[in-house]
Amino acid sequence: MASWRLPWTRLRLRAAPRPLPAPLRRSGSGPAPPRLPGALARSGGFVGGRWVQAAAAFPVLDPASGAELGRVADCGVAEARAAVRAAWEARPGWSAAPAKERSVLLRKWYSLMMENKDDLAKIITAENGKPLKEAEGEILYSASFLEWFAEEARRIYGDIIPPSVKDRRILVLKQPVGVAAIITPWNFPSAMITRKVGAALAAGCTVVVKPAEDTPLSALALAELANQAGIPAGVFNVVPCSQQQTPAVGEALCTDPLVAKISFTGSTATGKILLHHAAGTVKRVSMELGGHAPFIVFDSADVDRAVAGALASKYRNSGQTCVCTNRFLVQKKIHDAFVEKFAKAIERELRVGNGFDEGTTQGPLINEKAVGKVERHISDAVSQGASIVTGGKRHSFGKNFFEPTLLSNVTTNMLCTQEETFGPLAPVIKFDTEAEAVAIANSANVGLAGYFYSQDPAQIWRVAEQLEVGIVGVNEGIMSSVECPFGGVKQSGLGREGSKYGIDEYLEIKYVCFGGL
């Protein structure tokens, strides 16, 4: 592997300093930030196998306290292009390496994640705010993609097709697309990277990762472990940047002719911008965009089981996941019982607090802008006749904390049923017939996930097939799994991640015809 490390004379980037000590910084007179694991807390970008510094740095904040965790290199267009060049130069060696070699290195990376899972989880909770138990679960989920795609690397099979002419032989090869730009969100700062990168590296692609500005520390910790695992220089690169630099860096990645593939997880609006940029050079694109998940409870449902599923689906990560339920539709016969039991479960099971505090189930929202959106949705709904069953206001714990909220008497005219909230708000709509519920569920222009509870086998088949979403949960509120394809329809995106299908997003099909035989 050492023979194809990059010639660093081509990249004029300043080497980054060693990791900052933890705790990294303290902002003003506010509370001290969480202590970060010193060995994994990096402050530079990672380009071509080296830690590099940019001309400026930007702060990473603890959403629970507002305290500054540290400052990270604010990479710009120049650093992004250098990372692309590093990935491009590493591409021939990585793509030509035997699948077994790529598999072994991915497996080493997985093992290092498992050895460091506690520290990686602490980094997530520090920069994202989610409860430590959830962060620990994310790391296991994140690592599982490296394990899965380490195995899938050896299963990239082509085809031999029977020819129509006897002196020919027809073969189909699968080959890596090339350099992939990976743009990831803040709500799953580790898993959204490995779900994409695991597939890309297994296929033989090299990557440049642009993590969310709110949560770059998890990406840099993954880079540290990838380096320790022996992933060759230039195969895995990370260019963190501030919100101010993000549009320019995103455009640079999407328009660079050396980049063959864009994979993005984030909002539908941003996805459309990136698609526009990528169109100029006709790049392969995968998009996992916004959702507006319906959760339907039919009269035949087991109400207690539906309540448990609703609690898990809605309030995981304080409602900040793309597959979180955004609209509850409950049939009129069981509506009142469901609302009553749901409210009691919220008050009994959910506890708002700092993610590092034992017993916390609801951490902060990522920032005050997110809190403001929840408030707007509640205010709009109440002004149109909705009732607050429980919650409804900011929590006394801090400015980014919000009470888990349940609304009843909700109609489809309200904002909370027309756009994704991305917060701990559960609006409940009463409906009469199955056809009405399906029509409401399918009225959105997005279709990522959908859930429903029923004990009627015929109804289960009908509704599962009729829902216009990419992922359906039947009597189940948590569906994500490494073995299963993740992705949506309509404006929720393009392509699938995870599962045996995920690696296809990073492969080209080549037809080879041997004649004159």
Key terms:
single chain, 517 residues, six-stranded mixed β-sheet, disordered N terminus
Q: What's the quick description here?
A:
Helices cover 36% and strands 21% of the residues. It is an alpha/beta fold and 517 residues long.
Question: What do these coordinates show?
Answer:
This protein is of the alpha/beta class and 517 residues long. Helices cover 36% and strands 21% of the residues. It has helices at 77-96, 99-115, 117-128, 132-152, 191-203, 216-229, 246-255, 268-279, 303-315, 332-349, 368-383, 434-441, 457-466; strands at 14-15, 45-47, 50-53, 57-61, 68-73, 159-161, 169-176, 179-183, 206-210, 236-238, 259-265, 284-288, 293-297, 325-331, 387-390, 405-408, 425-431, 446-447, 449-453, 471-474, 489-490, 493-494, 507-514. The strands form six sheets. A seven-stranded mixed beta sheet has the order 15-16-17-14-13-19-20, with helices on both faces.
* Backbone structural class: alpha/beta
Strand order of the largest sheet: 15-16-17-14-13-19-20
Amount of beta strand: 15-25%
Summed over residues and divided by their number, the pLDDT gives a mean of 94
* Helix count from the secondary structure assignment: 13
* Distance separating the two termini: 38 Å
Low-confidence stretches: 1-18, 21-30
Instruction: Count the beta strands.
Output: 23
Largest sheet: 7 strands, mixed
In angstroms, what is the radius of gyration? 24 Å
As a percent range, the share of helical residues equals 25-40%
Shape: globular
